[in-house]
Amino acid sequence: MTIMSLNQDSRIYVAGHRGLVGSAIWRELQREGFTNLIGRTRQEVDLLDATAVRNFYAATRPEFVFIAAAKVGGILANSNHPATFLHENLQIQSNLIHGAYQAGVRKLLFLGSSCIYPRLASMPLKEEYLLTGPLEPTNEWYAVAKIAGIKLCQAYRRQYGCDFISAMPTNMYGPNDNYDLQNSHVLPALIRKFHEAKQAGAATVTCWGSGAPLREFLYADDLGRACVFLMRHYSEEQFINVGCGSELSIRELAETVRRVVGFAGEIVWDTSKPDGMPRKLMDSSRLFALGWRPQVDLETGLRRVYADFLARQPGGK
Ligand SMILES: NC(=O)c1ccc[n+]([C@@H]2O[C@H](COP(=O)([O-])OP(=O)(O)OC[C@H]3O[C@@H](n4cnc5c(N)ncnc54)[C@H](OP(=O)(O)O)[C@@H]3O)[C@@H](O)[C@H]2O)c1
User: Cystine design at 243: which of 22, 120, 219, 282 (Cβ 3.0–4.6 Å)?
Assistant: First the structure.
């Protein structure tokens, strides 16, 4: 393991700096006093355009790169747009990783997700389970692109000696999330549902499934801290999981969201709807062994997210 010398004035590019993960990395870098941060909107640099990416690297010469730009979406979006998910993710990461090699970037962190693991892998998910079985078909397009991203980092490390690493975060939640009920993740969807039920004075909120599945959630700022920590302290070909190491049931999650939002009614579980996987937990022991730990518990994180949600409502409520 090498300790990479990130200096306060190092030129650091965060690709996707306005997204959920990218904005968390950006906030953490600001908190730590880095003064030379580089971020570009899609309008300024379209990462699907290899020439635009090459020109951007040549003009800004970043020394460190975080890749938090991706085409992201839920099961529905994945199954309706398989070509878009595969093509755009392959293109964005290839342009950024190959461009970083050409531009002599000193270190790069690529972000994937837990969907890279086989559908029937045992829990908790260990890094070595990659490519040991078939993927979950509902998001395999996205997963295949992410696996290619990991392999790109490993290949550039082997062939050119580039210090390119990859991290696989668990489910994340935080400010700047997507609260659209059609294509959001479970946690922001619950916040919106309970909030709207409270506003309407509804007696019940109906949630999908039995509430029994177990899931792990990491607060955005903890992921931001983990990414900066890995940029400083991790330099291996093997990608590394980033989770909080504990899980809770969807039922417990819904109860906590209800409490935080202040909805007084009942929760009804619609068991005719699918539960999804019974359990999804990352094994983050490699990361914990390096000395990193999450700091924000679920209730505290949810209170911050609900405040962010309220601030986005028309009139701030
Ligand atoms: N959210 C999670 O729970 C979670 C968990 C594990 C891993 N991750 C990983 O973290 C990464 C980021 O996810 P996220 O949730 O932060 O997604 P997000 O909120 O949708 O952010 C993605 C970012 O990528 C940018 N982007 C996409 N296509 C682009 C293009 N062609 N040119 C320039 N910018 C482009 C978007 O810019 P615009 O805003 O302009 O579209 C946006 O800022 C993904 O690799 C994902 O797999 C996320």
Answer: 282
